[in-house]
Specification:
- The protein is built from six helices and 20 strands.
- The protein is of the alpha+beta class.
- A hairpin with a 5-residue loop joins strand 13 and strand 14.
- The two termini are about 20 Å apart.
- The structure holds a DNA duplex.
Length: about 350
DNA sequence: TCAACTAACACGTTTGAACGGC
DNA sequence: AGCCGTTCAAACGTGTTAGTTG
C-alpha cells in the first residue's frame, strides 16, 4: 500500500512510454494496418504493448487504453489503396480498456512491458462484453493513459499522462482488404500459423454458409427442407468436402504473390518509437461528458450520492506526430487535406473524453 | 452490381485440470 | 502434504470463405 501523502510526481513528471514491437508495428503501418473487428470481439495484432518508465515505484497507478478516431472520414478499399468514401459515422460512446492489473505499483508496471493483448475490438454497438466498440472502415489510434491511483475509483486525474504512437494508427475492417496485411499477419501471428504453409488443405469447397441475413426461420426452412441438398450441396459435393477434409484433396495455392516478402524498412520514414507523454500541465480543463454511472455504482460502499465531476486535461490539438495525408509520403492512404487543419490531424482529438466508458 | 458484413470452418496455440513421481 | 513436471483435452484465436444484404 502506498503511503498516503507521499509526494507525487510533479507536473513535469519524467513518466515515459515506449511501444514494444515497434518494428512490427512500423512494418504494418507502412502497408496500412488493418484491424479486424467482429461482432463477438477480436483481439488486436500486432498487440498493444508498452514499456513504462519514470513511475514512482511505491505509488499505485491505473493504466488504460482507449481509441480515438484519427479523422472524420469513412474509407473504402479501391484500386489497391484506401480512399475516402465519405463522412465518418457519428461517434460511438467511447469505451476504455482498463488494464486488469490496475491499480498496481509503479514498480510492477515498470518491471515488464504492459500488454493489452486481452483487449478486444468489436463493431457491435450493442456489445455487452465491454469490448471496445469501433466503426468499421474508419481510422483509429489507440491511446494509453497512466494515472496515479490507489484504487480504480479513486483516480488522481490531476496526475495522468497520455501516450500515443503514430505507427499504431489502423483502419478497422470486418474482412481484410489488403493482401499484404493478411500476409504480414499470417507470418507474424502464431495463431495464424495454420495458414502459413502453402500446403494447407482446401476447405469448405461448397460449404453451406448462412451469411449475413439468415434468420432463424430461414435456417429452419433449410434444415427441414426435404431437398437432399442445401445451398446446392449435392451428395457428390459432400463427398468432395469429406475428401478435402480427409487430407487427400488438392493443395490450394497461396493467394499471395511470391514477390511479397519482408520489406526493408526505411528508418528515415519510420515514426519514432517512443511517445512523449502529454503532460497535463498546459492543457485546458476537460470534464467528463459520458462517464458511465455504472462504474460509480460499482464502488464498494457507494452511498449513491452524486460525485463531483472529475477533471481531466486533454491536449488541445492532435498528437504531435507526422500527418498521414498525401504529404506524408507514399503511404497507403488517399486522404483529402482538411480545411484549415494539418493533413491527417485529428479533428476530434480534443473533443473525446478520456475514460468516457470504462470496461475491463 | 458490388462493397460490406456475417458466421461456420479447419487448424494451431494456449490454458488449466488431472495425474504420477519424488 | 506439498511441489514439480508431464499429458491431454477443451477453450480460444486465427484467417478463409461463400452467401446475403442494402
Amino acid at each position: 500500500m502506498a503511503p498516503r501523502g507521499t509526494p507525487a510526481p510533479g507536473p513535469h513528471s519524467p513518466i515515459s512510454a515506449s511501444l514494444e514491437d515497434v518494428d512490427l508495428w512500423t512494418e504494418f503501418y507502412r502497408v496500412g494496418t488493418e484491424m479486424v473487428i467482429t461482432k463477438s470481439g477480436r483481439r488486436m495484432f500486432p498487440q498493444c504493448k508498452i514499456r513504462l518508465s519514470g513511475l514512482v515505484p511505491y505509488l499505485k497507478y491505473v493504466v488504460l487504453a482507449d481509441f480515438v478516431s484519427v479523422d472524420n472520414f469513412r474509407y473504402k478499399w479501391a484500386k489497391d489503396q484506401w480512399e475516402v468514401a465519405g463522412k465518418a459515422e457519428p461517434q460511438l460512446p467511447g469505451r476504455s480498456y482498463i488494464h486488469p492489473d490496475s491499480p498496481a505499483y509503479g514498480s510492477h508496471w515498470m518491471k515488464e512491458p504492459v500488454s493489452f493483448h486481452k483487449m478486444k475490438l468489436t463493431n457491435n454497438t450493442l456489445d455487452q462484453h465491454g469490448h471496445i466498440i469501433l466503426h468499421s472502415m474508419h481510422r483509429y489510434q489507440p491511446r494509453f493513459l497512466v494515472a496515479q491511483a490507489d484504487d480504480l475509483f479513486n483516480v488522481c486525474w490531476n496526475l495522468f499522462q497520455v501516450f500515443s504512437f503514430p505507427q499504431t494508427v489502423f483502419i478497422s475492417v470486418t474482412a481484410y482488404q489488403n493482401e499484404q496485411i493478411t500476409k504480414l499477419k499470417i507470418d507474424n501471428n502464431p495463431f495464424a500459423k495454420g495458414f502459413r504453409e502453402q500446403g494447407r488443405k482446401p476447405r469448405r469447397a461448397l460449404r453451406f454458409s448462412p451469411g449475413r441475413g439468415l434468420t432463424k426461420e430461414r435456417l429452419r426452412e433449410l434444415v427441414s427442407s426435404p431437398e437432399p441438398e442445401r445451398s446446392g450441396l449435392t451428395k457428390e459435393d459432400a463427398a468432395d468436402q469429406a475428401e478435402a477434409r480427409g487430407g487427400s484433396g488438392p493443395v490450394s495455392s497461396s493467394r499471395f504473390s511470391p514477390l511479397w516478402g519482408p520489406r526493408e524498412l526505411n528508418q528515415t520514414e519510420g515514426p519514432p518509437g517512443e511517445a512523449a507523454g502529454t503532460s497535463p500541465g498546459p492543457y485546458p480543463v476537460y470534464r467528463f461528458q459520458d462517464f458511465s454511472p455504472g462504474l460509480w455504482e460499482a464502488v464498494p460502499g457507494s452511498d449513491g450520492r452524486p460525485r463531483p465531476e472529475p477533471e481531466v486535461r486533454l491536449p488541445p490539438h492532435g498528437p504531435p506526430y507526422p500527418a498521414y495525408g498525401p504529404e506524408a509520403g507514399p503511404g497507403p492512404w488517399l486522404v483529402p487535406a482538411l480545411d484549415g487543419a494539418a493533413p491527417g490531424a485529428s479533428a476530434d482529438w480534443a473533443q473525446r473524453p478520456i475514460l468516457s466508458y470504462a470496461c475491463w
